[in-house]
Design brief:
Radius of gyration: 27 Å
Protein name: Saposin B-type domain-containing protein
Strand order of the largest sheet: 1-2
Helix content: 40-55%
Low-confidence stretches: 18-47, 192-213
Keywords: Signal
Distance between the termini: 88 Å
Oligomer: single chain
Number of helices: 8
Order of helices and strands: HHHHEEHHHH
């Protein structure tokens, strides 16, 4: 049967013969790595569930620290203003949440987990920034009223973290981090708006109307 196929192929005009060879070759080709094909490039700090699980406790504690620091430094006492602070805390597009875009995710020294490092500049909000935002939103969700009440009472950092971070920081064995996970290279945001939004240059009191303060 193979010989008949070769004779039939030889009888074809040159152009049709080349086309037939290409079709047969593509049908028989299998990518290196088995039926599933070769593995794609290493994942770079992607916004996925595994990344969020590994950073959610750290993100929650950082979020509570940021909320308390901002409320204290900018003398935010009104309940409505505190609600705005907590509502925008996880949004890197808002001044209250710009800290989200200042975090860089890296593997820990053992290589088995992830750690967060805060930079002194606002970075571009790419995959890692979105992962932090997602983890922050999950941590704060369902605790906003409690956090506002504690901020209003001038509660200490430990009370805030205990109130909001019990679930994300619950002791448990984390899923294995993929060996292909590679952190993004932190890139400082170049836009004029982002570059001017360093922590020390945002007047949070201007975020609210006079009657709200």
């Amino acid at each position: 049967m193979a010989a008949q196929g070769l004779r039939a192929l030889a009888a074809l005009p040159p152009q049709r013969r080349l086309l037939a060879v290409a079709v047969v070759a593509s049908a028989c080709w299998a990518p290196v790595g088995g039926a599933g094909g070769a593995r794609g490039p290493a994942r770079r700090g992607s916004h996925d569930k595994l990344t969020a699980v590994h950073i959610q406790c750290q993100v929650c504690k950082m979020a509570m620290k940021e909320a308390r620091t901002q409320a204290k430094d900018y003398d935010i006492q009104d309940a409505h203003a505190l609600s705005n602070l907590v509502r925008n805390l996880c949004s890197p597009a808002k001044p209250e949440g710009q800290w989200v875009a200042m975090l860089d995710i890296e593997r820990n020294e053992e290589g088995s987990g992830l750690v967060l490092h805060k930079k002194d500049k606002v970075g571009e909000c790419r995959a890692e920034c979105q992962a932090v935002r997602h983890a922050c939103e999950r941590a704060v969700e369902g605790h906003k009223e409690d956090v506002v009440a504690l901020l209003s009472d001038l509660a200490g950092l430990a009370r805030l973290q205990n109130a909001a971070c019990e679930r994300p920081c619950k002791a448990r064995e984390l899923p294995t981090l993929s060996p292909t996970w590679v952190g993004e290279k932190f890139k400082v945001a170049e836009s004029a708006a982002a570059s001017s939004m360093s922590v020390g240059h945002v007047d949070h009191r201007r975020l609210y109307q006079r009657e709200e303060l």
